[in-house]
Amino acid sequence: MAILDRLPTKDRLFRFGLVVDAACLVCGSDSELRDHLFAACPFAMDVWNTVLSLCGTRCAALTWDQRLSWMVGNLKEASQAQVR
């Protein structure tokens, strides 16, 4: 659902008139959009940096789409290296 941008984020629910406040529940500094929740939120950035650091890698991607492309490319490379 995240890849298709179909998550019931507060921003989407706000557009349907189902919630009053579209602010991010985690940081409160921006609208709760998929891109914010998975890439731009300071909490999400900390999580990404911690997980990638534990995996011994880094990713300079700034948006969700950039992160997704990076993950697909790196996972494809890793799986091909294991086959060899």
Note the overall shape. elongated
Indicate the percent of residues in helices: 40-55%
Q: What string, H for helix and E for strand, traces the elements in order?
A: HHHH
Integer tally of domains = 1
Per DSSP E runs of 2 or more residues, the count of β-strands stands at 0
Notes on the structure:
This protein has four helices and no strands. 13% of the residues are buried. It has 84 residues and is mainly alpha-helical. The termini are far apart. The protein has one domain. Helix 2 packs across helix 3. The chain is elongated. Helix content is 55%, strand content 0%.
Helix/strand layout:
Layout lengths: L9 H6 L18 H7 L1 H13 L9 H20 L1
Descriptive tags:
84 residues; 4 helices
Could you provide a short overview of the structure?
This protein has 84 residues and is mostly helical.
